[in-house]
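User: Second chain of the day. Same drill as before.
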Amino acid sequence: MQHLLDPINDDMPCGDYLKNNRSAYRELRNSYNKALSAFRTMMESPDSMQNDELTETNRICWVELSALCEKNLASVSKDVEVFCWFITAQIFSDKPLENLRDSLETLRKVIEQYWEYLNPRPPVEKLKSDDTAGQQKEWAEIRVKPLIQLIGESEGSGLLYMPLQNIILAGQTTYNQYCVAEISGKAHELKSQLIAYLPDERAEICERIELLIGIQQSIEMLDLLVNERCHEAGASGISFLFLKHTFEALINAFQFLFAEEIMPWPGQPVPEEEGGILSEVNGPVPDASGIESALVNNDVVTSPPLNTAVPQSASDTISPAFAANEHIGNRDQAFNELRKIADFFQRTEPHSPVYMLLERAIRWGYMSLPELLQEMVGENQPVMDRISQLAGLENTEKTAIPDVSAVAATPLAREQDAQILQKPPQPQKAVETITDDTQEPPSSGGPEKSSGVSDFEW
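Assistant: Same format as last time:
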């Protein structure tokens, strides 16, 4: 899919606004609707899902859609909606998870490289805003809107959700069949059956798990990038939460079935035997002065050899060379140091979301609390109202407090206080006071949930 990163032409790297090319858009839309119809027909009943003719018709429709989208993205218009259809079509390809991962990563790179020109980008005369800032915001909102059909707006929604139900776990057992077994209380019985496939299918199962983890990482990086671009334009971001939940559930199914049999789990480091890393835990820590110097001077740092281990109590032994050369006197200086680290990771590990997470931390650090909550919550106004109420953001007026300084300063008040302190305790009266005035404590369950607050993700 590397060719999809090439510009369509020098003047307009992302090509035309597709809605102005009605014949091209109509052809794409018809192909997409045809593929959706074939999928719904195939999924109508358990019998139809086993029908070879319906299954083959569905596959052909999605393969045709994929080819048409790919041609359009390469030569007509790099359009986000067409990317969403192209990504969905990959689940019906010969290598569903691998192609899904690659297509998501391609979309991320296109957004990173061509955001300013990315379609849909209607002409200025079709926008409501007259000023540059307003136009940039409007374009950003128009660009990300098609992504919502891909990522979903609720649990079990989005273009990818239903096709992913047919992903094979082991043998010919699909994720949907696992979900049915889980609901009916037969998950452990199914687990025993699928473990029997491990001797012959271990490599394929491990590859599926690794690909799912890779897709998770691609979604996380896409989420960070899209919302960062939206914020830069002053537009509201979108939530990838439900799409993330879909892949978390898929990986959890593999973990339930095979975690006890597949060790180490894919994506985790292989523990070394005696004489390797574990036997050198108490060894010396390499001098970090060279690393610090490279960070400050924006040089690439080479990692220490793999057989060099950090002690378990690293905080007690790490060289003070990691400390900053100068005292950090204010938050701006602190954020500048954080920017240096983010730049370092962007150069040396561009595939990793570390640098984007650091940039997000910097951006959040310069937001007011209402702005930060708005970005996190998005368009979910009931959640925003509830948080504002609980945090006291809806009313910043100060409540008047009676002036007690005059009373406290009088000799009479001090004398009365002294008399009260000298009086012996009166247990019975104290108990009556507590009984009369004390309200029943709230239950451990806390306040009744408001709409959506329990689903809020920090």
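Residues 274-325, 417-458 have pLDDT under 50 and may be disordered.

User: Great, on to the next one.
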